[in-house]
Design brief:
Chain A has helices spanning 4-7, 16-39, 46-56, 65-71, 79-88, 110-130, 135-148, and strands spanning 63-64, 92-96, 104-108. Chain A is mostly helical. The interface between A and B is large, with 58 and 58 residues. Chain A binds a DNA duplex through helix 2 and helix 5.
Chain lengths: 150, 150
DNA sequence: ATTATATATATGTATAGACATATAATGTGA
DNA sequence: TCACATTATATGTCTATACATATATATAAT
């Protein structure tokens, strides 16, 4: 186990709260770097994968762009552009919403579902490998992260 | 306290390990968004702030670009370009290393130290506010994050 | 000394995040 | 109806991440 102090060669932190923020940023980078290696061969980014996951969760019910935005892991991201990229790859379909022409209905395609299914196996297996905690510890971590955000 | 399931409207996760990865990505976004509001008025990004912090930690001893890279929170980042941006703002100085002309010595300037000092007060205060945990909990979180990375 | 290899830094390019603004459609109140 | 605010989506721009590659210098091998 490499403590955060060693990992970034910083002797000490102002307090454990500031240390936790740095630790979280650093651990985030560790996870994302690990995940990127998985996504690379599939020509899709983690963020695009996440959008596909959201769409599949709808079970065939079309979703608007703003609804995707609300459910994204990063609220500051840009659902409109991600959907556009997925459309270019043929992984989603976009259609004008009939009752409100401002809205856009988004649906995952068969091709999207197939790619997602294949990717998901690897991502879920990878995530277990990346997290070097036992079951009690990972449950505790989830609890602390939920509480952290207030 | 908002559980991750509510926050991103996902009913359940494959297992607590996959939940933890998603929880970490989401909590990271929460922290970064909170921090950005602090940095905005100073015309500097969190990443540039982090480079300044690394440089100050050297106490006047010049640091090479690759040494900065090693100590960054995100190892995939680009120290060369961040240093260039800080130089344009007059916050760091770059000079060719005499004993190895491939290397570049980087030093924080007076202006950089002043900006860092002013920012640091706000960032450190902010970090305490953002992390809604008590002392025992935050210590436990640090322990779990260190262990998570293996 | 010459060639090959390794290292330090810089640069090119694509995607995403952060944030402001534009555009179009809808809803609301006078 | 008309003016005005609101909402949904798209777009523009800058910074950072991710990763490949270029360039210069240093080191090692022959």
């Amino acid at each position: 186990m490499v403590k955060i102090e060693e990992a970034i060669q910083q002797k000490e932190f102002k307090d454990p709260f500031n240390k936790a923020v740095v630790n979280l940023l650093y651990t985030h980078s560790y996870l994302v770097t690990s995940q990127n290696a998985l996504f690379k061969p599939y020509g899709i980014s983690p963020e695009q994968y996440n959008v596909l996951r959201i769409l599949r969760g709808q079970n065939g019910v079309p979703t608007t762009v703003s609804s995707i935005q609300d459910r994204m892991l990063n609220k500051m991201s840009n659902a409109s552009r991600l959907v556009e990229k997925l459309k270019v790859k043929g992984l989603v379909k976009r259609s004008e919403c009939p009752n409100d022409r401002r809205q856009v209905d988004v649906l995952i395609t068969e091709k999207g579902l197939e790619l997602l299914a294949e990717l998901q196996i690897r991502v879920e297996k990878g995530n277990i490998d990346f997290v070097h905690l036992n079951l009690d510890e990972v449950n505790k971590l989830n609890e602390l992260l939920d509480k952290l955000r207030g």
